[in-house]
Amino acid sequence: MPHYFDSAHRAEIETLRQRLTARTEWPTWLLLIGVYAGWFSIVLGSAKLGVWWSTLLLIPLVVLWLSVQHELLHGHPTRWTPLNKVLGYAPFAVWYPYTLYRDSHLLHHRDDDLTLPGLDPESRYLSAERWQGSSVFEQSLHWLNKTVLGRFILGAPLALLALAREELQRLKAGERQAWLMWLTHGTLTLLMLLFIARYSVLPVWHYLLLISVPALSIAMIRSYYEHRPHAQPEQRTVLNEAGWPWRWLFLNLNFHLVHHDLPGLPWYDLPRAYHARREQWVARSGGFLVQGYGQLWRENGIKAIDSPKHPFH
Prior knowledge:
By secondary structure, this protein is mainly α. The protein has one domain. 63% of the residues lie in helices and 1% in strands. It contains 16 helices and 2 strands. Helix 4 crosses helix 11 (204-222) and helix 9 (148-172) packs across helix 11 (204-222).
């Protein structure tokens, strides 16, 4: 048991872990069924719903799907990695193959490397060397990406450009795993787009640009300020007391320090673990507490929250 929990906190965490061992995972199963059923219902019913109602329903559903994929890669709803992979491989969000997301995100959970450029695959910071080697235009984009509005507008395009650059290098190098992954993902994505073209009124370009990209932009708001540079690894991860719509879309990942400390805890137990010992979690985070995403919008909508250059890496 980690040394930073007091005895009462340890007892509560142990209770949650025992419950995890005996879990049925029915909330996650229901969520999985609901997302699949919702996606097919909206696509097949798009002629009656119309293009724009279908769009407004599909965007949050795809955001939710990204959160569901996150649960799957952390061992829910089953303990069998191959089965979770099958359950989560549907390319509803288009751009990121499930296995690529899974492998890079699990590397991100090495807490000693959090925020460190080149070590944390989800770091939003640049090393001093890369920062100095960037053009004024590139530096300006990174500064804009440190505002909430800039993150919402630029976060997805910048992430997709970085993805394309990194994966093209792997493909050019002839990496077998990369070729298999992208051929599999590409085939499934093509089949999905053919299904959309055949059975819905949604143009394929519309799904790609006006559903999947906005969904990724919304998901970028969750990760906007999940981590900060700090000498102590446990003080690099936020506790965000978000309102219920965001908690639902992000499956309680706003309680991000709880998730990093207890990555095996399912989404529906995160609020219970947090509120049972809120003061201890806040103390452990070094006061890294945000009062919902509204606070971020108000304070950093157009003002950078910190520097894109990592302060000590």
